[in-house]
UniProtKB/TrEMBL annotation:
One GO cellular component term noted in the UniProt record for this chain: nucleus
InterPro entries registered for this protein in UniProt: DDIAS, Euk_RPA1_DBD_C, NA-bd_OB-fold, Rep_factor-A_C
Gene that encodes it: Ddias
Name of this chain's protein: DDIAS protein
Highest taxon, organism lineage: Eukaryota
Family: Belongs to the replication factor A protein 1 family.
Amino acid sequence: MNSVRGFLAASVISIQNSCFVYPACQKCFSRLILDSRRFNCLKCGCTGEAKDANYRYRLSLKIADTDDLFNITVFGSCLDPFFGVTAENLQRCIQDFNHLSGETNPDASPGVLVQAVETCFIGKRFIFGV
């Protein structure tokens, strides 16, 4: 793996998925396996009650600079200013909205949220640390 770090100025072409938050392990940030009562991290073995699971941002983007296209994923609290809330609070809002609207998939992002994220990012230029 190349350990060279740098910056890339690029424009967002598309959002690659509509799931912007995920349940994350507090120790290693890997995706947790959740059931109705418990969570489990397959990477480090951390376990706990599902109600205590932490959430983290994960925004997968297709971006372009002047020469190339790239798939890039932005993680963590650097996205708080764009969403206006922490990933924990956004997940609560999504769950409340899904409950009120009768959505059966608890992880489904409301269409209006997906549209807002697309409006905020697509066509805009950002500097990415890679």
